[in-house]
Design brief:
Radius of gyration: 14 Å
Largest sheet: 6 strands, antiparallel
Oligomer: single chain
CATH topology: Heat Shock Protein 90
Number of helices: 3
CATH superfamily: Histidine kinase-like ATPase, C-terminal domain
Strand order of the largest sheet: 1-2-3-4-6-5
Number of domains: 1
């Protein structure tokens, strides 16, 4: 059985950060969603919880389906720019593609959902993989 306790957020460079490694499986979406709920509630940002949970669900599912390696890293960062950045880091350099889908397609809508729910999203290449991230605005 996997241990999915939510690790406490830490402060790096005056920016609150939550980070945890999960197995690269679709089952890691559940603990990632719970982590988003816990962390954003602790940061007094309950209005972001629903969108953050859906975004992480899609990013984790994409990594589980398309990446390599046995683990992924999920991070939630409250940036200095008044945003929350949700990210999934995996060990595959292949960039995700925002696809055009038709009504008959059974998949391929994950990044469309991320695009719709987030203020912006992107991919940071890493020497051994990539970080796929999405940002949500923190309303004052």
């Amino acid at each position: 059985m996997l241990d999915h306790r939510v690790e406490a957020p830490v402060i790096r460079d005056r920016v609150p950060v939550y980070s945890q490694t999960f197995p690269r499986t679709a089952r890691s979406a559940g603990p990632s969603r719970r982590a988003a709920s816990t962390v954003l509630t602790a940061w007094a940002l309950p209005d972001l919880v629903d969108d953050a949970r859906l975004i992480l669900d899609e990013l984790v599912a994409n990594a589980a389906d398309h990446a390599q390696g046995t683990s992924i890293r999920v991070t939630i960062t409250r940036t200095a720019r008044g945003r929350v950045r949700l990210a999934v880091i995996d060990m595959d350099r292949k960039r995700p593609v925002l696809r055009t889908v038709t009504a008959n397609d059974e998949g391929g809508r994950g990044l469309r959902l991320v695009d719709e729910l987030s203020d912006r999203w992107g991919v940071d290449p890493l020497p051994w993989g990539k970080r796929v991230w999405a940002e949500l605005s923190v309303t004052p």
